[in-house]
């Protein structure tokens, strides 16, 4: 098992938690975005040196055509959609609208002298070696390394942990601009073969290639039209299962058509894709998606079937009975209702261990005997903890279970017995997060990576063959920045009251010398899809503190998974407003406790967090000085009609049902835009970011939202703050982004914050 987790701070995503099973070797690195710099006339240069308020009066926002004929009856309510034409990414009119937005925003950001200052400092800060945990596959250990500013991480292999590493796969050689990224990897059971997937321009679509480990040469075949799929090798190393779509039209990430009818295929090494065997399909359920996993022993194929971003069905196939795979598989259904999460961990013969929240909102481990799979026969191996959330589990050293819990928004790591579930030991951890783990049932050694707000990364090694030897620090990641001392920073966790009195945890990071004085504050939130915002290291956040003498605040608002399904359910569907209330009351708390002032608060969120930002600037614009919304979901009446949006109904509700429609209309950012009635309640300075190859949250959401904003304020003297949009090309939702473009986008964001809040750059 290799688990690579991704930091959540200042990183945007919309969960497909049930799509990307964390036990798969397919991890999803960040996607790419491009910034095309232009030359400006001296008149434009003069404008970009102005403050945010002064700038607004000089802007001539692009005027989007309004088509008043587009009106729909939603359960008796007439809803106009005048900017529906912006849903067509290929139309000349849409492309001209995007170009017009960029012609305003790019000069404003990139022409500012401070853009260069921030970019140079951020580039210097970013330039330090980064490593992932080693993982053993067959005769070799593998790990990723980035020397500092390489666009993509390089995969190395070595025979022992002390032998000289050699390059096994360098994605930087696949494109000159870094826009082809490694989206996931999967070694065969004996480590003989290596399947790897590539993403282009940040799209969720991937192409799978296969490499012979011994020779380093790739086989001829390339598997296409693959999306939301890992690779599950059969025990004989002859081939693997994967999911693909038979989708018509273009599939490069710029399309908006719904992803439906995923099918499971079996591919044999060395054969063309057209020879792949269709083994599972559910034609009567076009929105079902499936993840496949072959058991540790190789006898069983497990299928997790999802139709949303929570709960799944759980089926299996006896591969020994199947024999040579030449057609449809004989599926045995264990769980046939979408009512809980089920994840295969390991098995001993027909007895499998499953992580589930069935009857356990904080998750537990159960045993299911495949000879008697009925629920009445299920047994609890490790009971649900009353408070801590079982985040993930893995089997190592034949009979040990590694369990990672979330305890008050930080990781704890336990070892239990596979035989009886008893606690064996606990690994010591500081306040922070386990962001990576590798270990297998057949090996005695494990590696885990720890990160915190002030720790870039510590990789530990432990071998169960020497149980009395404590975990050792295998490798530490250090900043190459003179003067950086983590001891000069303070990290505090507070619990504040939300609107309904619920106590919400929040981390606050600042310099110790700044405590007690109102400072610029970056308030970051997500709040959805059972995703937990845990302490991880953020270069952008460190830059905000160091450059502007600011503070960072991370409220763990409801809708996330920090306290299990209770916390998630408290911020989804008809409880979604709790997310926005929690975020707004975080801002109130920070002001009341003298951490900051409302004019100095910038809020940020991406994807579902972009929705959070959009809803909050509509509801309480007076609480914030600035806002950054990245790849946000803004049209809550049509989100389910594009790409994988139908999977989000589990968190947002179905707009086609009246009760959910009524609820969604209350907070849908697009449908709640209004002209400010006074200068005091004008929109904060706002930057909306999206990308042309985002096929997770289509850019149409952001395009329609900015068009509506500009229309409402067109003749409104009360709106003086800038409302801007930046659309990146050859970029997607976030994964696979080359380092250079990560830095450029972070520079855009920090420059916007500098200008919007009228900040001062601290001289170090």
Summed up:
With 764 residues, the protein is of the alpha+beta class. The chain has 13 helices and 40 strands. Helix 4 (113-126) crosses helix 13 (739-756) and helix 8 packs across helix 9 (608-619).
Structure, explained:
The chain has 764 residues and is an alpha+beta fold. The longest helix is centred in the first third of the chain and has 19 residues, at 92-110. The chain is globular and about 75 Å long. Residues 3-56 have low confidence and may be disordered.
Mean pLDDT, nearest integer? 92
Strand % is 25-35%
| Shape descriptor | globular
Low-confidence stretches: 3-56
> What is the C-alpha radius of gyration, as a whole number of Å?
25 Å
Strand order of the largest sheet: 33-34-36-35-37-38-39-40
Task: From the structure above, extract its key features.
40 strands; alpha+beta; five-stranded antiparallel sheet; disordered N terminus; 13 helices; 30% strand; 764 residues
